[in-house]
Write a structure and sequence with these properties.
heterodimer; A: mainly alpha; 3 helices; elongated; B: mainly alpha; two-stranded antiparallel sheet
Chain lengths: 125, 520
């Protein structure tokens, strides 16, 4: 099972990188989301996979009876999902505002901050 | 199984009063930000409240720094779980002094930005976002847990996104797209490395990682460290992943870009210093050739970019990149002088780069221009401005009477102690960087201040803005600090040296967290 999930993580990351290499903002956003999900899956797999035994200590005992699922990766992933979602929402709104203001979805045509016609060195020294 | 057979999981003693000071700056910053959101409609009240919060944070951090300097690193673990189960906050001399510098820089920027608000920096959320940014930065400096570091990175990232688009001018949106995507990608790569590290070691507490890392598979650990190098290198704008910085830092108003130039890249490079030198020293040695190449390339390419640039604040962005190279050189030279040079450089860069951007903002106000081709004759118009800019350029290059001189001396000393071709190359690169930075800075100065003012026909008309008293106060305070620290470097030097000793030998750090060191 670990190997299957590892291969899946590889596919997610490859797809994310492929989409991020695109010039279109929307594709880049999708790439960021897929890459983020790949990373979350990686943390989950790195925390070791077990059958579904909830990490709950039975009443009357001080520690669980036998092996349980590792709860820490799940807490880490939950945090990462929340943060990733907030970032994604911000970037989505940013991409929309940029499209409205600059009328550009292609990063090659976004050259306000770095003008294409900037003077070439050497200038006067 | 009976209770007494289990190892203890909770701390049963009361938390020391000193340990609370480690988390108090964060609590104050987060609470201040929340309060500022409530009172965002009143500009005067917001300003006073922000000022009071930052002053309280500074007071806490001075207490913390004095304590850390006297008796070594302090740690507090959340919810009384024994480390490594709880999230630890651990302050050593490096973390505490950088957190203090960050708060001082924030205070200065708040004072400087007050007259510009709200028309120029847009909306009432400016102060809340600044305090959230400070919370993120302070958290990154004081945390003792790698996953928690990721969380603070995201806190400072989202607030810097907000600050960068405040006002919503087209150029800001353009800059933020580049800044946002690349920095979010960098933190995702950091998260990736954390997942792998957790899979290898089963812990993310820094002190615990220091203990168990030597037993792990060295090849896999080197892979994790390489990912961290990429992630933090991107955050710090080290060559070859530096393109986002000059594309975005000049877009927002001067006060905001000063705050970013002072804090954001320094957090990235501090995280690299912390993880590679203190937490994973064995993998740093594996990555050393890469570190040396990256350091030399960043040192040289930064100021060369500044020489070629005509936009004032974009040129300063390249000088910031060159400074990152100096810290990288310190990471590549892991002896006491090298690491303390790197630490001192981060401290110096926080103050100097912020001051440079603030003064650039004053120049832009005075002339209504940001293109150095159309600025001239400022020396006649405003002599104090020319002194400020020239001295700050000298500080950035590392000329003696300023703060910038001391980290360079330490780094050169570290390089000479290392010796061999590694030390020789890095020393040469540091010296070349100093000369190139001097050329770039004095070229800017000569263009803007010395030569005759351009005739109105060749200059595109700009709208000059008045320079208020608070503008002068903000830049003046930083300027005085840079000169004073350059003239009396001893206290700062001793703090940084004790911090560097703790970075190189983590025994005190690990025992402060409450873990015993294991010998493999």
């Amino acid at each position: 099972m670990d190997y299957v999930l590892a291969a899946l993580v590889g596919c997610f990351v490859a797809l994310g990188v492929y989409l991020l290499l695109s010039r279109s903002l929307i594709r880049m956003l999708l790439g960021v989301v897929i890459l983020g999900n790949g990373v979350n899956l990686l943390i989950f797999t790195a925390g070791r996979l077990t059958l579904q035994i909830a990490p709950i200590v039975p009443p009357g005992l001080d520690q669980p009876d036998g092996a349980i699922a590792n709860p820490l990766p799940q807490a880490l992933i939950l945090t990462a999902i929340v943060i990733g979602f907030a970032m994604f929402s911000f970037l989505l709104v940013l991409a929309f505002r940029t499209y409205q203001t600059l009328d550009a979805d292609n990063t090659d045509t976004m050259r306000l901050a770095e003008p294409v016609d900037a003077p070439q060195p050497p200038l006067s020294y | 199984m009976a209770a007494h057979d289990l190892p203890p999981a909770m701390i049963e003693t009361a938390t020391l009063p000193m340990a609370w000071v480690v988390v108090l700056p964060l609590v104050l910053a987060l609470m201040g930000a929340a309060l500022l959101l409530i009172v965002r409609r009143s500009h005067g009240l917001s300003f006073v409240l922000a000022l009071v919060s930052v002053l309280a944070i500074i007071a806490c951090e001075i207490t913390l720094l004095l304590h850390v300097f006297e008796s070594g690193p302090v740690s507090m673990t959340m919810a009384k779980w024994l480390p490594p189960f709880g999230i630890s906050f651990t302050a050593d001399a490096f973390g505490a002094s950088f957190a203090l510098a960050a708060a001082v820089v924030t205070l200065v920027v708040l004072i400087y930005a007050e007259p510009e608000h709200p028309s120029a920096v847009g909306g009432g959320s400016f102060y809340a976002l600044v305090l959230l940014l400070l919370a993120g930065v302070t958290g990154s400096f004081l945390t003792g847990d790698l996953f928690n570091l990721y969380v603070w990175f995201e806190v400072l990232l989202i607030s810097s996104f907000g600050l960068m688009v405040l006002g919503g001018r087209a150029v800001q949106l353009d800059g933020t797209v580049k800044y946002g995507f690349l920095n979010f990608l960098a933190t995702t790569i950091f998260l990736l490395s954390l997942g792998l590290l957790y899979g290898l070691l089963g812990t993310l507490n820094m002190a615990d990682v220091m203990r168990v890392a030597p037993q792990a598979n060295p090849a896999a650990m080197a892979g994790v460290a390489a990912l961290m190098l990429l992630a933090f290198g991107m955050k710090a704008a080290a060559f070859p992943v530096n393109a986002w910085l000059p594309a975005s830092y000049h877009a927002p108003p001067a006060a905001i870009s000063a705050l970013m130039a002072g804090l954001l890249t320094k957090v990235g490079i501090y995280a690299l210093l912390r993880t590679l030198v203190a937490v994973l020293p064995a993998t740093r040695d594996v990555l050393e050739p890469v570190l040396i190449i990256v350091a030399i390339a960043t040192l040289v390419i930064g100021p060369l970019g500044a020489i070629a640039e005509t936009n004032l604040r974009r040129a300063l962005g390249f000088i910031v990149i060159g400074g990152i190279g100096a810290v990288m050189a310190g990471i590549a030279l892991p002896n006491l002088a090298g690491v303390s040079g790197a630490g001192l450089y981060i401290f110096h860069a926080m103050l100097t780069m912020t001051a440079l951007y603030l003064v650039a903002g004053l120049i832009e106000r005075q002339t209504g221009q940001s293109d150095t081709r159309y600025i001239g004759g400022l020396y006649a118009t405003s002599a104090p401005l020319s002194v400020l800019f020239l001295v700050l350029v000298l500080a950035a290059a590392g000329v003696p009477p300023t703060l910038g001189f001391w980290p360079k001396v330490q780094l050169l000393q570290g390089g000479l102690q290392t010796g061999g071709w590694i030390g020789g190359l890095l020393v040469t690169a540091l010296l070349v960087n100093a000369v190139l930075t001097l050329i770039a800075g004095t070229r800017l100065w000569a263009h803007m201040f010395w030569r005759a003012a351009p005739t109105p026909a060749e200059a595109t008309p700009g709208e000059p803005l008045p320079i208020g008293r608070l503008h002068w106060l903000g830049s003046g305070v930083l300027f005085a600090l840079i000169i004073a620290a350059g003239l009396w470097p001893n206290p700062m030097m001793e703090v940084v040296r004790s911090g560097a000793a703790d970075m190189l030998d983590p025994a005190r750090y690990v025992s402060a967290v409450g873990l015993a060191e294991v010998t493999p």
